[in-house]
Amino acid sequence: MSKPDESLDLCSVKTFAELSGVTVEEVINWVDNKIIPSMTLADFRMVNLARLRADLEKGKTEFKEGDYANV
């Protein structure tokens, strides 16, 4: 069994939506409401996969509005 590519630390909102099976608008809502971790890189809003992965590995199962307000 191959190990997942852990080099993917950031991804676009569009790519995250495609991988998650939800609309881009839904992911934008999650980012705007600080439900998932994100950061701005060269004027682009990116989902912070490294932070999301670390939180999931620590056992995080619920994501609520404001969870990533201080990120």
Can you walk through the features of this model?
Helix 1 (13-20) crosses helix 2 (24-32). This protein has helices at residues 13-20, 24-32, 49-57; strands spanning 10-12, 38-41, 44-48. It contains 3 helices and 3 strands. A hairpin with a 2-residue loop joins strand 2 (38-41) and strand 3 (44-48). Strands 1-3-2 form a 3-stranded antiparallel beta sheet. The chain is α+β, with helices and mostly antiparallel strands. Helices cover 37% and strands 17% of the residues.
List the helices and strands and how they pair.
Blueprint: E1 10-12, H1 13-20, H2 24-32, E2 38-41, E3 44-48, H3 49-57
Helix pairs in contact: 1-2
Number of helices: 3
Order of helices and strands: EHHEEH
- Low-confidence segments, given as residue ranges, are none
Could you give the order of strands across the largest sheet? 1-3-2
Distance between the termini: 34 Å
General shape: globular
Count of extended strands:
3
Helix content: 25-40%
Mean pLDDT: 91
Category by helix and strand content = alpha+beta
| Estimated share of beta-strand residues | 15-25%
Rg over CA atoms, rounded to whole Å, is 12 Å
Main beta sheet, described?
3 strands, antiparallel
Question: Multimeric state of these chains?
Answer: single chain
The gist of it:
With 71 residues, the protein is an alpha+beta fold. 37% of the residues lie in helices and 17% in strands.
